[in-house]
Amino acid sequence: MELDWLKHWNLETPNKIAIKDGDSGKEIPYADLFRLSNQAARFLINTYQIKKGDRVAVLSTNELEYVFLFFALQRLGAILVPINFRLTQREVDHIISDSQPQLVLFQEAFGGIVENLEFKVQKLLLQKPDNLVPESDSFADVIHLQPNDEVPFTATENDPVMILYTSGTTGAPKGALLSLKMIYWNSVNTQLRLNLQSTDCTVIFLPFFHTGGWNVLTTPFIHAGGKLVFLKKFDAEQVLKLSEKEKATILFGVPTTMDMMARTPVFKNYDLQKIRYAIVGGEPMPVELIKTWADKGIPVRQGYGLTEFGPNVFSLNEEDALRKIGSIGFPNHYVEAKVVNDEGQELAADEIGELILRGPVAMQGYWNNPKATEETLRDGWLHTGDLVRKDSEGYFYVVGRKKDMFISGGENVYPAEVEQILRSHPGVLEAAVIGVKDEKWGEVGKAFVVTRDEELTAEALRTYCLKNLAKFKTPHHYAFLPNLPKGDSGKILKRLLLNEGFPSK
Length: 505
Prior knowledge:
Layout: H1 5-12, E1 17-21, E2 27-29, H2 30-48, E3 55-59, H3 64-76, E4 79-82, H4 89-99, E5 103-106, H5 111-115, E6 122-125, H6 139-142, E7 160-166, E8 174-179, H7 180-194, E9 201-204, H8 211-216, H9 218-224, E10 227-230, H10 236-245, E11 250-253, H11 255-263, E12 277-280, H12 287-295, E13 300-306, E14 309-315, E15 327-331, E16 336-340, E17 353-358, E18 365-366, H13 370-376, E19 377-378, E20 381-390, E21 396-401, E22 406-408, E23 411-413, H14 415-423, E24 428-438, E25 442-451, H15 458-468, E26 477-480, H16 494-500
Parallel strand pairs: 1-10, 3-4, 3-5, 5-6, 9-10, 11-12, 12-13, 25-26
Antiparallel strand pairs: 1-2, 7-8, 8-18, 13-14, 14-15, 15-21, 16-17, 17-20, 19-20, 20-21, 22-23, 24-25
Helix pairs in contact: 1-2, 2-3, 7-9, 10-11
């Protein structure tokens, strides 16, 4: 079965707007999206000999050319590797050396990182800045010069089409391998559960290095023939303004962004009557915030997903938003879910256990990491590491995480990676990091540190972390202790740190 969505919409609704740059106002209809994806594929073949299985990495904000590239690579059976543009040189180096791409496309703003990559790779500007000399061509310039012929669609449903790197529990990011089949079935699940139509429109601000940027609404909308308006970064008032102007029908956010929009002075002024509901993921949304949006006429649908599965896995129907506050709802179509104990036995209602999932929206595994793959994918089930319970009506609730991961502003943070950086500081003997509540970001990191140097300050550690970690991973709070609480085996007892509330220095 050929999964060439663009070819279908090029025939059915060629003049309908597919994607739009919310900053510049530039619009691309489905016919042009199909044409430019073919021309981009032709360019990648002729200039860089990109073939099936090759990786192409991108370090960029959300740009229209990013979308052309994604669909061009599918025609070639090649694999897109989006890179988080908030990462440091060290973190980007790891992803590049692990994925070993044939080509890196980048924006000029990130040129310094690309030029200093340890792994030798071909490089090309995604777009040409206004101040760059004309002879310095970019991907955006050259694809228009290619022959306008159709490149055969090579990817089959079991071919990988994307590697999304997630922060690793052992300190190194892992690349989740997403197949075309996974993206297809996730879009089908999303369309069925959200009742997506070709008349739907949404504003997208989640970055393309995140599964939410691609697979919460972008790929399902394009599969359904809808319209997407992209922003390079989140701006609360701009999202509201564009949602009104474009007559958006669905809004997506995390509690932090929903709160920021609701707090803008002009929130009450915008007409958002076309929005059927807001989809909210990442963490439970506070009752008062749900009510604020309900008073605006926009019901909230809480959901749950993860990079390695879906990500549209659970959804809470809007009519249950208040009755089942805190619930992630029940599984979407074609998703099997069980709550099990450590022995893999399914638990009864209201018993807490690990959530495991099975279905066609599971990743193929972790790139270059068979050990992590075997630990996560067992007997056909994906083990999420999340602790949940299911009530007597079949509604699921996330109650904790087997892993230490916490979510800051919608971004996953794994303490092991942060602790590794802290321990690399010459003045640090031991370190432990936990997530603590934060009014703005939901959760932020708090580091508990045993020092070798009594003069070491919280500000010095924060500066050190910012040089080696993305800002959202850097702890906001620091506590200095004479020792860390440990069990008989020597393992640090983080629950004691969480409960004691040690003061920061």
